[in-house]
Amino acid sequence: MATRLGLCLPQAQQYDIGRDVPDVARTAEQIGYESLWVYERALFPEPATQGLYGVPGLPWPEHYRSVPDALVTLTLAVTATERVRLGTSVLVAPLHGPFQLAKTLGTLDAASGGRVVAGFGTGWSLDEYAAAGVAPFEERGKVLDEVLDVCQAVWGPDPVEYEGRLTKIASSVVGPKPARPIPVLLPANTKKALTRLVDRADGWLPIAMGAEQLAAQWRQVQDLAAERGRTKPIETAVRVNGVQYTAKAYDGADRAPFQGNVEQIVTDLKAHAEVGLDEFFLDLQASTRDAQELKDVAAEVYTAARAAGI
After folding, report:
1. What is the pLDDT of residues 52-62, one digit of tens each?
2. Which backbone phi and psi does 290 adopt, to 5 degrees?
């Protein structure tokens, strides 16, 4: 069975959100992509008081300077498509009020006919937490757990009742309900996050940073699932960040994965796909100049990947 392939929607500065998102979404579905994805970056602190990913001195990339809201972007793709799954990788869940987030995702799934995939993470930006004002950064894990609880309650049968630290829902009818149970996917970068994934989520959202590393991480997930007695399959969707496309081939052994011409990108994708995970979705937007180039490169990559047996 072929690996599912997805594409990240355009959220970088060079794209027109209202025009390019529906256009790229529609074209990607016509090409054959099976999913479309968005990410969340709430703001761009200037000057940056915290390095990228919390690493001191690591600069924030320019394409984070103006990122459209993830769920608005995904909504623009709903009516432009009929078949593709619509995923978040990731929503920084603790930046959102749990009830409103659950309600919005449920509505979006109902509107799309059951195509939403909820990828949640806890993020790393202190400035984003301060601006959102939902909870302190130090409580991010507890808030994510409450988001998972509230989603389960709100998406479930009426009457809905819930009482948590942030959220109190008196017995209520809450609709519209999702068209089907929304899959919840989580990253797992720590033992605690890995345990939450195995115990509470439908699937795993890793980042492709080398085929051997991905295989080792997948073994870790499977080992913990066996240890904790999980029998339900773990869905997997792998984000391929910052694909750097160039018409020319890179020379030399120091080429980073997913950098180069289409042939080199597909070679790297094939090596990662051999790990045996369900789906890979590509972020091509940083190295393409406009929506037309993004669509053209996406078509080339898809065609070459399928020809390579991916």
Report:
1. 999 999 999 99
2. -160, 180
CB 84 within 8 A of CB 25: yes
Q: Are 3 and 280 a contacting pair, CB within 8 Å?
A: yes
d(CA 13, CA 136): 29
Amino acid occupying residue 246: T
Task: Using CA atoms of 226, 231, 232, 237 in order, give the dihedral in degrees to the nearest 10.
Answer: 20
pLDDT at 270 over 70: yes
pTM: 0.96
Specify whether the CB–CB gap between 59 and 88 falls below 8 A. no
How crowded is residue 28: how many other Cβ atoms within 10 Å of its Cβ?
27
Write a three-state SS string for the chain: CCCEEEEECCCCCCCCHHHHHHHHHHHHHHHCCCEEEECCCCCCCCCCCCCHHHCCCCCCCHHHCCCCCHHHHHHHHHCCCCCCEEEECCEEHHHCCHHHHHHHHHHHHHHHCCCEEEEEECCCCHHHHHHHCCCCHHHHHHHHHHHHHHHHHHHCCCCEEEECCCCEEEEECCCCCCCCCCCEEECCCCHHHHHHHHHHCCEECCECCCHHHHHHHHHHHHHHHHHCCCCCCCEEEEEECCCEECCCCCCCCCCCCCEECHHHHHHHHHHHHCCCCCEEEECCHHHCCCHHHHHHHHHHHHHHHHHCCC
Q: What is the pLDDT confidence band of residue 1, given thresholds at 50, 70 and 90? A: low
How many angstroms separate the CA atoms of 133 and 128, rounded? 9
How do residues 238-259 score in pLDDT, each as one tens digit? 999 989 999 888 877 678 899 9
Find the angle CA(211)-CA(261)-CA(245) to the nearest 5 degrees.
Answer: 85
Residue 160 and residue 153: Cα distance in Å, rounded? 6
Tokens 């904790």 — which residue? Answer: 228
Q: Report the alpha-carbon distance of residue 294 to residue 26 in Å, rounded.
A: 13
pLDDT at 27 over 80: yes
